[in-house]
TrEMBL record:
UniProt xrefs under SUPFAM superfamilies: DNA methylase specificity domain (SSF116734)
Coiled coil as UniProt keyword: yes
InterPro entries reported for this sequence: Restrct_endonuc_typeI_TRD, Restrct_endonuc_typeI_TRD_sf, Type-I_RS_S_subunit
Listed GO MF terms: DNA binding; endonuclease activity
Coiled-coil parts of chain: 376-403
Type I restriction modification DNA specificity domain location: 3-179, 212-390
Similarity comment: Belongs to the type-I restriction system S methylase family.
Protein name: Restriction endonuclease subunit S
Classification via CDD domains: RMtype1_S_EcoKI_StySPI-TRD2-CR2_like
């Protein structure tokens, strides 16, 4: 049912003209080129154009004048990741669409930013995906896209809806930038603090921590425990919650909030492989060597959660090493490279206990370890708060899109 005052149209009804981007050899690209070319690789999946990565080509502007993009032109990817819609914003130099994009010049009856939101919406994206023809390499045509059915409100309402959604986009973009900056700052902080280049202030003395850092192997201050507990449920065994590979791979901290897998284990396995606070868990086996020894910290009491298969527990001697600090060291490029080179296998890579034990670390005194870990943990929490905020903004925008772009919720045009 079309909302009151809205009309049912096709994309073709809103388009003056459409065309594929022209083809030419990439050998013409030059830093002093006269014409920029938007490629599919210059587009983000959320429908934004990365103008910073656009290459420029030595082309005669007069020969490509009809292909030069205008403010508000709609571009849609026609091959590979089909159906990504983008709206062009005018730049200093002339820009044309690449050969794997379709350019649509729009009529005045449609506001380009409103149409952009409609084309990004889940229902319309589903329709576009169904239109894509081909096997592994999908393709779209301008003719098929013009058959897309859309609901169109009056132009003033289009503008108001687009402006409302744009406010959420700005909040999302700002938060994404804050997350990126916070992650860069944390990375720089890790590089300084975990190598001793920067010494923190000892709260007991009011001065920077003193004392030499000591070179040690992992087994000098930790015990490595490799778990054989799989995800099977065996009759006669004891039901347990299992921390598995994906829990470790996708999380910095292992907490009760995670939805642990249900499995069974023998009492002897429960006694040996139950996780403790301050344990560092690492991925011991993986399909690629780059995913070996990814760490996560058990940061709270898990009430009996058992460590699963393809993982190893690094349990520190609490008098010598702080688990949170060791967890940070496992994320350092030097440590990541050590385990990358140590991983053996063909279709599946793994680490030996001996190899894990001989990982080399440089440790400050325990009090300094704890202080460094607390600073980096605070940085992690700041990032987590921002990521939760970002997820909230995205969910709110998605809910608004479902209401505003379908007319279920109408906007006031008086303000």
């Amino acid at each position: 049912m079309v909302p009151n005052g809205w009309i049912q149209v096709t994309l073709g009804d809103l388009v003056q003209k459409s065309a594929f981007g022209p083809r030419f050899t990439s050998e013409l690209y030059s830093k002093d080129g006269a014409i920029g070319t938007i490629r599919t690789t210059d587009l983000y999946n959320d429908g934004e154009i990365n103008y910073a990565t656009i290459p420029y080509a030595d082309l005669d502007v007069s020969e490509y004048e009809e292909h030069v993009l205008n403010e508000g032109d709609l571009l849609i990817t026609r091959s590979g990741t089909c159906g990504i819609p983008c709206i062009f914003t005018e730049q200093e130099k002339p820009i044309i669409a690449g050969a794997f994009l379709i350019r649509f010049q729009l009529k005045e009856r449609v506001y380009s930013k409103f149409l952009h939101e409609v084309l990004k919406s889940a229902p319309v994206q589903s329709s576009i995906k169904r239109m894509a023809a081909g096997g592994v390499q999908k393709n779209l045509t301008g003719t098929s896209l013009k058959k897309l059915h859309l609901s169109l409100p009056p132009l003033p309402e289009q503008r108001k809806i687009a402006n409302i959604l744009s406010t959420w986009d700005k909040a999302i973009t700002t938060t994404e930038k804050l997350i990126k900056t916070s992650k860069q700052q944390k990375k720089a902080l890790m590089q300084q603090l975990l190598t001793g280049k920067k010494r923190l202030v000892n709260p007991e003395t009011g001065k920077a921590f003193q004392g030499e850092w000591e070179d040690k192997y992992l087994n000098d201050f930790s015990k490595v425990i490799v778990s054989p507990v799989d995800k099977k449920t065996v009759e006669g065994e004891i039901p347990v919650e299992l921390c598995n590979y994906t829990d470790v791979y996708y999380n910095t901290n292992i907490t009760k909030k995670l939805d642990f897998m249900r499995a069974t284990a023998k009492q002897s396995e429960i006694d040996k492989f139950t996780l403790e606070v301050d344990d560092v868990i690492i991925t011991k086996d993986s399909e690629t060597p780059g995913d070996i020894a990814v760490p996560a910290l058990v940061s709270e009491d898990l009430d009996g959660v058992v460590c699963g298969y393809h993982l190893a527990i690094v349990r520190t001697n609490k008098q010598q090493a702080d688990g949170a600090f060791i967890n940070c060291l496992f994320s350092m490029p030097k440590t990541r490279y050590y385990f990358f080179t140590l991983a053996t296998g063909a279709t599946r890579f793994g680490l030996s206990i001996g190899g894990i034990n001989k990982a080399h670390f440089c440790l400050p005194p325990l009090e300094e370890q704890q202080k460094i870990a607390s600073v980096l943990t605070a940085a992690d929490k700041e990032i987590e708060v921002l990521e939760a905020k970002l997820a909230h903004f995205k969910q709110e925008k998605k809910a608004l899109m479902q209401q505003l772009l379908t007319g279920k919720r109408r906007v006031s045009l008086s303000s």
